[in-house]
Amino acid sequence: MSEENITLTPKDFATDQDVRWCPGCGDYSILKQVQTIMPELDVPKEDIVFISGIGCSSRFPYYMNTYGMHSIHGRATSVASGLKLANPNTSVWVVTGDGDGLSIGGNHLIHLLRRNLDVNILLFNNEIYGLTKGQYSPTSPVGQVTKSSPMGAIDHPFNPLALALGADATFIARTADRDPLHQREMLLRSHKHKGSSFLEIYQNCNVFNDGAFEVMTDKKGRPFTTLYLEHGKPLVFANGEKGIILDGLKPKVVNLGADYSESDLWIHDEHDQTKAYILTRMFEDPQDGLPRPFGVLYSEERPLYEDLLEGQLVSAKAIKGEGNLDALIAGSNTWDVK
Amino acid sequence: MSEENITLTPKDFATDQDVRWCPGCGDYSILKQVQTIMPELDVPKEDIVFISGIGCSSRFPYYMNTYGMHSIHGRATSVASGLKLANPNTSVWVVTGDGDGLSIGGNHLIHLLRRNLDVNILLFNNEIYGLTKGQYSPTSPVGQVTKSSPMGAIDHPFNPLALALGADATFIARTADRDPLHQREMLLRSHKHKGSSFLEIYQNCNVFNDGAFEVMTDKKGRPFTTLYLEHGKPLVFANGEKGIILDGLKPKVVNLGADYSESDLWIHDEHDQTKAYILTRMFEDPQDGLPRPFGVLYSEERPLYEDLLEGQLVSAKAIKGEGNLDALIAGSNTWDVK
Amino acid sequence: MSQHEVSKVTILFSGDSGDGIQLTGSEFSHTAALYGNDLSTFPDFPAEIRAPQGTVAGVSGFKLNFGSEAIYTPGGSVDVLVVMNAAALKKNLSDLKEDGFIIANSAGFDKRNLKLAGYPDDSDVLSELRESHRVLDLDVTKLTREALKDSSLGTKDRDRSKNMFVLGFLYWIYGRSLDRTTQFLETKFAKKPEIASANITVLKAGYHYGETIEASLPRYIVKPAKLEAGTYRNISGNQGLAIGLIAAAEKSNLPLFYGSYPITPASDILHELSRHKNFGVKTFQAEDEIAAVTSAIGASFGGNLGVTASSGPGIALKTEAIGLAIMLELPLVIVNVQRGGPSTGLPTKTEQADLLQAVYGRNGEAPMPVIAAHSPSDTFSTAIEACKIAIEHMTPVMVLSDGYIANGSEPWKFPNAKDLPTINPPKAKLDGGEYLPYQRDEKLVRSWAVPGEAGGEHRVGGLEKEENTGNVSYDPENHERMVKIRAEKVQRIANSFTPLEMEEGETSGDILVLGWGSTFGAIKVAVRELRGDGVHVSHLHLRHVSPFPNDLEELLKSFKRVLIPEINNGQLVKLIRDQYLIDAKSLCKIQGLPFRSSEIKAAVMEEVRILTQMQES
Amino acid sequence: MSQHEVSKVTILFSGDSGDGIQLTGSEFSHTAALYGNDLSTFPDFPAEIRAPQGTVAGVSGFKLNFGSEAIYTPGGSVDVLVVMNAAALKKNLSDLKEDGFIIANSAGFDKRNLKLAGYPDDSDVLSELRESHRVLDLDVTKLTREALKDSSLGTKDRDRSKNMFVLGFLYWIYGRSLDRTTQFLETKFAKKPEIASANITVLKAGYHYGETIEASLPRYIVKPAKLEAGTYRNISGNQGLAIGLIAAAEKSNLPLFYGSYPITPASDILHELSRHKNFGVKTFQAEDEIAAVTSAIGASFGGNLGVTASSGPGIALKTEAIGLAIMLELPLVIVNVQRGGPSTGLPTKTEQADLLQAVYGRNGEAPMPVIAAHSPSDTFSTAIEACKIAIEHMTPVMVLSDGYIANGSEPWKFPNAKDLPTINPPKAKLDGGEYLPYQRDEKLVRSWAVPGEAGGEHRVGGLEKEENTGNVSYDPENHERMVKIRAEKVQRIANSFTPLEMEEGETSGDILVLGWGSTFGAIKVAVRELRGDGVHVSHLHLRHVSPFPNDLEELLKSFKRVLIPEINNGQLVKLIRDQYLIDAKSLCKIQGLPFRSSEIKAAVMEEVRILTQMQES
Ligand SMILES: Cc1ncc(C[n+]2csc(CCOP(=O)(O)OP(=O)(O)O)c2C)c(N)n1
Ligand SMILES: Cc1ncc(C[n+]2csc(CCOP(=O)(O)OP(=O)(O)O)c2C)c(N)n1
Ligand code: SF4
Ligand code: SF4
Ligand SMILES: [Mg+2]
Ligand SMILES: [Mg+2]
């Protein structure tokens, strides 16, 4: 099978259905990158499954020529859990939105993360409810004016990566729709991670929340507002002009050159959970000049839920022997009537 | 009203209903402490409301002679949100269990925490489903044998305080059923905190999970396994023999005396979120000799959701004037038919 | 040039989502209303937010039915079809009457548009069409550009006003004044006078174009309708519902708490309510539907009027909590703006298929009043009645609306606030005696003590409760008694209903058409017309679907045959058959679309045929 | 000393939760079964985990009905009431037959116990009782201690064996051997021989006590029943269900995936299944009921047999997802072990009040087969049939059980695995041609392609889908067609039902008692006894409550009157009246308790009276 797969191209992963997102929507770019990396996974096409909830982003499976389910709002993660347990051989991708995954579906998400099933979660964060035509979401900033918050949203938003870390996620990462190369790298990393991968993708909804990530995604500002993390590498940004040091527990921006060199900087260690925590918190307060980190903030190896379950099935068989239906039906206590 | 209240005693907060927990259940102690602090709140009895979900712990409201609701499983937090918004003058207490609050009710909990309504959440964590007679819960350790996990639970448990912190809680604290004085202090602190207070209470279920917190609650072991936090004070435990220092980002146990004095130790700062994160993680790995912290791990002032909402009502009235029903019904576009 | 007088006309404006169709339609409606016509409108959005331009999926429509007589529906088949591109024609042609008339923007029929619409790109669709229909094609794009040749606006901005050309042209056909739209444009673009003036120029150009090519076209006169005198406004179903809720809150002196999670087609209620914070309205966008309904329950426990709304999938999620509200006996209003199901179904389409869920869809014996609105403006009084029942009978109430009512609109002779019914919450009398939360009055209604009220401290919950005290009780007889009391309490609500009134026809006879909800207009029109033709048929429309009115049985049994049209696979008919053991017949349409009166007429005629046959044999 | 032969006896063992009541009851049952009696049992736990000792709330009960004839219920009124304390008497006395017999532990009637039970603490309850009933009081505590005076055990451990004294005494009364229980104790306490021997000593002491005081007591002979020859086991409803599910998985060659969230009284299914991992059973304790059902849907999509179970409140939460499964047309079995409602209701009590929810409780037109088990052992074949329908018809199926069936138990002549029905999943034939996921066979069933199967890649979802292709479709006619197809597909399942068979009586006549679910035993006994008395009454019991069997209508219409007893406020009766327009009468009991056959007999006799009156007039 995988032999055949070698000859597959991104086009083989497109369906014949018209893609129905608004022209200009960030979802197109993500679809393209996902289709692009598919042939590189070395997984037979028939073993790939896309599961989504409801939302603009959740239309995704219809456009992937793999197995797929457009389920119900908020439940992609729990559908995926059952699927993965039933059929551990599959490569399961969950596509969800900030509403689908963090509002109605928040609970299934954090439970999936703690259980650590080997599922790749792509959270399309556009900080808005797109499909229902523009209400604020759990990631919309305070003050955002939307159809349901004409005087500005008053809900303190989630920090999705901090939440995932708090739920003991084993892989958290961030990328953006406008950065196809980085996206591809992150998609591949998500795939490679054995365990639940939580990838937040900043996605522009040009109809209801255009420019939400402008500062972070436009060409000019980007070097100063974003930080690209690489394991083992110092935290450098602003085209190499600035770096970040850890002053006690506080990250601080420093200018490289006179006073600081790269060797003084915080070296990114994907496996340090406390550092990851600090990175997730480089988020709320743009005034402090800290850029927002992209890349893999944290990764950890932890036993897979499906392996543990499978292990119990195997050892149950080892201990009790393969199930015998007649013995089960009879139970341990029978008598005869003649 | 509060004048009358001065004369109230804990007994005034008991109802005539028989308390129906199992003899020996840790819930009794919590009930007692809660009834004890009530007169100290300086809140008229009729302004106090207890809201619970379903579970042994959730029977709590029936025993409190205040307003109360024993709602449905997992929804105490969302019921409480509506109540607090409707009636901001009330002192709202949510009583929930590890199943009620973290399994079925996990989503409402994290959303309440991020919104920061002024509600006091008491999570009775007994690491088991009591009322349904003993299945493992989202806080049960891996390997726990219960009715639904005869070969041991395989679910990596939540770290409730880390989860709450990840959800941007403004107050997180821990106490235990067997420590009435500390409990009382924490209950009062929860009450005083303006914002959502998340108090985890270790509670022994002597029928289905007896001794789950033995190491932390029994008299002999306790000094070595527990750490009592006080704002501005060094992290000392083991009857003053040991302390904790921060070695970079890692907490480390040191012996006080020869090499270390109290002034070398980590000084607890309730308002430092990163330190709080490290404290929440002093949890998983007993081998490293770190005690489990009790007390207020983190507190922060953030605007209250109900105040922000009220603010919008006030400014809407200021801008548009008090609503005029006739004008609303007519709208902006009318015509006459003669 | 001919000038026909007609009593009503149905126009369907259609084109690409970006063509300004909704604005064109609503402006025409306003002008018609001001002129004195009665009318009814219905928008038809594409399912996608922005479906690809030029495709059938991307077509936006606005249907308008206006007349010199009373109008009850946005109309069935279309008299005048306005199509801005080929896709609009493709989608809507089947809707056109045989002798209907097409106005087409020929610029929308170029190769690209034909292809996108799925026509062969070398076909001359409009010419072919002319063989069977009356077609007027005009190159709106070109005409607009010409009208604006002196404007300083860029091409894009100029082209954007092309809908005004069509509108102006239609104003000419129907002899309407441009005043209202001119004013509207001036206000709307007050800050961009250039755009305002361009639009007005094009509007006039369209009107004048009509005059110029006059000779070849029929003009219609639709005289003002004989409407009841008074002041009117236009109102959609979701708007009416929202302001009805605010009115009920005012009338009951309770703050309104609205806990909701967005869902099509109910979200607009949230949007509307969130704009009225100066009425003290608290809107809470919850994390999901369960939090929406439970926060509303918490709010009601706290002394507010708790309301929640959703559509099918969201209502399904609320059912457990509704059961709790039934046990708590607290006021709660749940609005279901129904849409096509099952599951996610057809989210942007209308349906009436959640009736049985409303009546029966809960665990245990959990009766709850269910009332249905029958038209956009009717939602206002339905909302008020629902709140009145919820508060005065201390019970959750389900309100059924649907996508058709929610998005449709019609003129409404609105009432004065002072004439609205008063609502009296059964507040507990806390006079020092013991407060028994489940003691009841003669309507079996308990009294309501609210946190903050000294002496009213009490506990409620979802476990079965002892009569009077409300304490938890596992006693077998008590449970049976409480189940019966809860059922009887809901049943007694029917005692306060006003007597049933026929919509059309006598209270007995051959055939009764029994409807509920948004089938109202189509049934009304059908029965009227049939009665005009001498058919012995009457129309009764149910607002109260649970409990049924006490006088329903007698009425039903006074007819030889009962026909129940529904936009579902037959649901009310099941309730009626069960309760009254009459062989009521079901007429179903399950297409995400409302009935046409012609469909109902045909079904009635079939009943007539059966009756005749029976009488002959 | 008298020796009566009786055909059946109902014993109720009752006492404090800590008194070992359940063990006593189940040991007596096992011994009776071995002896050859037919029997039926039902435990009655307190609602609290450990209610306070000595109180009425803390009373635990075990009801046993055994006989020399076929036994269908755990019995109505009690022949022999065993009470270990005053609270047990308080709770259960009303259940005793007029000529019933009480065996009381007098040590449980001291001042403290009387007070806790709510009797005046100076009353001599047992003496007063003697005036109206036959009472044997023995100081079990004292007698036990005496029997163990030589034991080295502490008082606490000694006292713990007092239930064995009572058991021994009852074995004497009914002339039963001590062998089975002696063996059981030896095995159970193999590692604590002292405790084993103490228990056996006390058991014997109880037996000998009977012999000693023999003169004053009646002894009963209950001969073996004429049971069908074969091998039997005892089985509870939840057990039967669990192993039925495993059997279905084996017979269909699909791994079983069970997604569940604990809830009374369904949790034991999870417990049972989680013990059988060696069958490849995957149990997943989800975070809530929504995750439970959606994980099961995901598992079915992945090619497993997805099953979920819950009770009322949890089923309510699953309704949205069930709608999805209906759209997806994937196999899914949803078990509802009903309990007292509404809301949290009476969680430890039984009820049948979720039937209408099962049939109608979803948004949109969402038909789904519903089948009901009628007794503890019947759950086994019900589970298999549910899985067979779900898999072979690609549909979710709802199984209704209830607390009474789930916790009750009875002897079961179990089948051989090889004789169980085979189950054939309609696997897609992926032969290189295009796979159309919504193409159907003559039963309207689509075929099933599973991730991992090359060439079967396809997408499913909750939006309405185009016929055959399954692509999203907003087409109006397609929607109507699909709604009708889904309905017809479920309807056609009835074509495979075996013809209806009467439980009792002829297929036509005066009165038909129509039942479903756990009312089975009570109806059966009532109708048998009435027929014995010459009443023209028959009994039909429905397993398939939706769709109804094709031959039901004719049967119903062959009776003059139809009576439908239900443990709810009348639900099946609504479905029957609607569908067949017959004036079926409802007999309701809503007390969290099963019917007694006497209640059904009385209702039938009332129907007889009405019939006679009708015939006379
Ligand atoms: C149970 C239920 N509740 C609500 C909805 C309506 N709904 C559909 S998508 C959506 C939110 C979409 O937001 P998001 O997940 O951020 O996706 P986006 O459209 O922004 O990609 C909502 C509220 C629904 N379909 N089902
Ligand atoms: C919707 C719903 N699902 C399941 C249940 C059953 N149930 C009641 S309490 C409970 C869990 C109790 O555990 P926890 O919250 O830890 O409380 P505890 O009894 O341990 O205090 C469950 C599963 C229910 N009542 N309602
Ligand atoms: S509404 Fe926003 S998110 Fe949705 S398709 Fe359009 S641009 Fe994309
Ligand atoms: S079961 Fe456990 S938690 Fe529940 S009342 Fe008993 S001891 Fe307490
Ligand atoms: Mg979004
Ligand atoms: Mg617990």
Write the layout of secondary structure elements.
The complex is a heterotetramer, with 2 copies of chain A (338 residues) and 2 copies of chain C (617 residues).
Chain A: H1 2-6, H2 27-37, E1 48-52, E2 67-70, H3 76-86, E3 91-97, H4 98-104, H5 106-115, E4 119-125, H6 160-166, E5 171-176, H7 180-192, E6 197-202, H8 214-217, H9 222-225, E7 226-228, E8 236-237, E9 242-247, E10 250-255, H10 273-280, E11 292-299, H11 305-320, H12 325-330, E12 334-337
Parallel strand pairs in A: 1-2, 1-3, 3-4, 4-6, 5-6, 7-11
Antiparallel strand pairs in A: 5-11, 8-9, 9-10
Chain C: E1 2-5, E2 8-16, H1 21-35, E3 38-44, E4 59-67, E5 78-83, H2 86-92, E6 96-105, H3 111-117, H4 125-132, E7 134-138, H5 140-147, H6 155-159, H7 162-173, H8 179-188, H9 193-213, E8 218-221, E9 230-236, H10 237-252, E10 256-260, H11 267-274, E11 282-285, H12 289-301, E12 305-310, H13 312-328, E13 332-338, H14 355-360, E14 370-372, H15 378-392, E15 396-402, H16 403-407, E16 409-413, E17 459-461, H17 476-492, E18 509-516, H18 520-532, E19 537-542, E20 544-546, H19 552-556, E21 559-566, H20 572-580, E22 585-588, H21 597-616
Parallel strand pairs in C: 1-8, 2-5, 5-6, 6-7, 10-11, 10-12, 12-13, 13-15, 14-15, 18-19, 18-21, 21-22
Antiparallel strand pairs in C: 2-4, 3-4, 9-16, 14-20
Helix pairs in contact in C: 1-7, 2-3, 5-7, 7-9, 8-9, 10-11, 10-15, 12-13, 18-21
Bound molecules: thiamine diphosphate (TPP) (2 copies), iron/sulfur cluster (SF4) (2 copies) and magnesium ion (2 copies).
One iron/sulfur cluster binds at residues 21-22, 25, 27, 56, 126, 130, 205-208 of chain B.
Structure description:
The complex is a heterotetramer, with two copies of chain A (338 residues) and two copies of chain C (617 residues). Chain A is 30% helix and 19% strand. Chain A has helices at 2-6, 27-37, 76-86, 98-104, 106-115, 160-166, 180-192, 214-217, 222-225, 273-280, 305-320, 325-330; strands spanning 48-52, 67-70, 91-97, 119-125, 171-176, 197-202, 226-228, 236-237, 242-247, 250-255, 292-299, 334-337. An eight-stranded mixed beta sheet of chain A has the order 2-1-3-4-6-5-11-7, sandwiched between helices. In chain A, strands 8-9-10 form a three-stranded antiparallel beta sheet. Chain A is globular and about 95 Å long. The model of chain A is unreliable at 1-5 (pLDDT under 50). Chain C is α/β, with parallel strands linked by helices. Chain C is 38% helix and 21% strand. Chain C has 21 helices and 22 strands. In chain C, strand 5 (78-83), helix 2 (86-92) and strand 6 form a beta-alpha-beta unit. In chain C, helix 2 runs parallel beside helix 3 (111-117), helix 10 crosses helix 11 (267-274) and helix 10 runs parallel beside helix 15 (378-392). Chain C is globular, with a radius of gyration of 27 Å. The chains are: A alpha/beta (338), C alpha/beta (617). Chains in contact: A-B, A-C, A-D, B-C, B-D, C-D. At the C-D interface, helix 13, helix 14, helix 17 and helix 20 of C face helix 13, helix 14, helix 17 and helix 20 of D. One thiamine diphosphate sits between chains A (54-57, 73, 97-100, 124, 126, 128-132, 137) and C (261-263, 289, 313-314, 317, 344). Chains C, D: Residues 257-471 form the Pyruvate flavodoxin/ferredoxin oxidoreductase pyrimidine binding domain.
